Automatic annotation (TrEMBL):
It comes from Chryseolinea lacunae. It holds the Pfam family CMD. InterPro entries: AhpD-like, AhpD_core, CMD-like. This is Carboxymuconolactone decarboxylase family protein. Residues 41-120 form the Carboxymuconolactone decarboxylase-like domain.
């Protein structure tokens, strides 16, 4: 059972309605996560703005989806695992093996592996990475700007993971479960 309400787009008003209309226009629907965020227009607007900005970054949408899967697995967020598996497979046309590997910070591509490992390290160390962690991702070929973007992607996904885990958001994508369910 959900713990926070996912607002119905037809019942939204004001800034929330405006944001829902923009999401609907872009995606053709308003996913339950964004409907839940709509309880706070500031949160929804912040999420959409940050997500949009990172989408224009140099890492690319595919890498962003793979990072989302690695972070969601680290945080046992079934909503985000489900959403990003669907997006990766259906919108980005990424092979299911690549999506599955990303959850474990693995990739056939060494640079992608470095990005995913750095993302998981950021989560595990709660951002308190050390010199060796940063040197490893830079050694893999990431610029300092791209390292910043990696941190941004992790932060954005921690936000959505925490919101969905708090809200127990109803999954409106084909369900994907965490490999190691969270222990509370």
């Amino acid at each position: 059972m959900t713990r926070l309400t996912a607002l119905h787009p037809d019942e939204a008003t004001g800034k929330t309605k405006e944001l829902f209309n923009a999401v609907q226009g872009k995606l053709g629907l308003v996913p339950n996560m964004m409907r839940t965020m709509g309880n706070s227009p500031a949160l929804l607007e912040g999420y959409l703005t940050f997500s949009g900005a990172l989408g224009k970054g140099t890492l690319g949408a595919k890498t962003g989806e793979l990072i989302a899967l690695a972070v969601a697995e680290s945080n046992s967020c079934d909503y985000c695992l489900s959403a990003h598996t669907f997006i990766g497979a259906n919108l980005m046309k990424v092979d299911s093996k690549i999506l599955d590997d990303a959850r474990q910070a693995k990739s056939a591509d060494a640079k992608t592996t470095a990005a995913l490992r750095f993302a998981k390290t950021l989560v595990e160390k709660r951002g308190l990475v050390n010199d060796a962690d940063v040197a490893a991702v830079k050694q893999a070929g990431f610029t300092e700007g791209e390292v910043g973007e990696l941190v941004g992607h992790v932060a954005l996904n921690i936000l959505t993971n925490y919101l969905n885990n708090t809200a127990n958001t109803a999954i409106d994508f084909p369900v994907v479960k965490s490999l190691e369910p969270a222990t509370v």
